Amino acid sequence: MPAGTSSGKPKQVADELRGLIISGDLDEGDLLGTEAELIERFDVSRPSLRESLRILEAEGLISVVRGAQGGVVVHRPNQRVTARAAALVLQSRSVSLADVFEASAVIEPAATRMVAASRGHQRAAEQLRDLVTEMKSTVDDPMTCTSVMVRFHSDIVQLAGNQTLILICEMINEVIVRAVADALTRSRDEPISSRRRTIRSFEQLVDLIAAGDAEGAQEHCAAHMARLRQTLLGDFASSMVDGAHHR
């Protein structure tokens, strides 16, 4: 521990600042203040303050900008921060990409059932149908079309409305999408007929949601995820999650 610090004070200051950021009192890009201002505000030594800031910087909650116009800048927690931490844990446990994808394949069908069974299932279907229309209009552009498909999966979980599931899926999608970015590049050579089959599958899923067929929607989504696993991961399925993709 740097000279001039005590074991408790840096953690105490870090805890207080973290609480302000997480509670929403501080927003993305807000300036906490300069080093001198924070030393005065918390009545700590410079080494203690810098130790506090190192804790928060390691958590991705702040960045320190040097220079006359610098200061401590706030970063709101998001799925990138969560994914980075999760990727490191998964990497340390030698978890494969297939393992991560299988988690998504469990959650998304359940979320689809929740959407189809909800009172707002017809409004949800309209929102998802708009994405299907966008897929059709971009089907000749593999990268753009694939991006819309990713949004479709994300929106299903968002529409389910369960905040814990939303966070978990944001983390999973962040890990999968970044880890298999090469698969999206390879999709440039994917036959357009493959994307059209995927779009038809989405259309069928939207119809089931619009009809309020919760069981049918869940079963269809599960089958779709099984096909997607092979298409998206391919030879990458046995690869390990790499934390370097999330730095």
TrEMBL record:
SUPFAM superfamilies associated with the record: GntR ligand-binding domain-like (SSF48008), Winged helix' DNA-binding domain (SSF46785)
Transcription among keywords: yes
A Pfam family hit: GntR
Keyword Ribosomal protein listed: no
HTH gntR-type domain span: 7-77
InterPro entries in UniProt: GntR_C, TF_FadR/GntR_C, Tscrpt_reg_HTH_GntR, WH-like_DNA-bd_sf, WH_DNA-bd_sf
Superkingdom of the organism of origin: Bacteria
Keywords carried by this UniProt record: DNA-binding, Transcription, Transcription regulation
PANTHER family for this protein: GLUCONATE OPERON TRANSCRIPTIONAL REPRESSOR (PTHR43537:SF24), TRANSCRIPTIONAL REGULATOR, GNTR FAMILY (PTHR43537)
Full protein name: FadR family transcriptional regulator
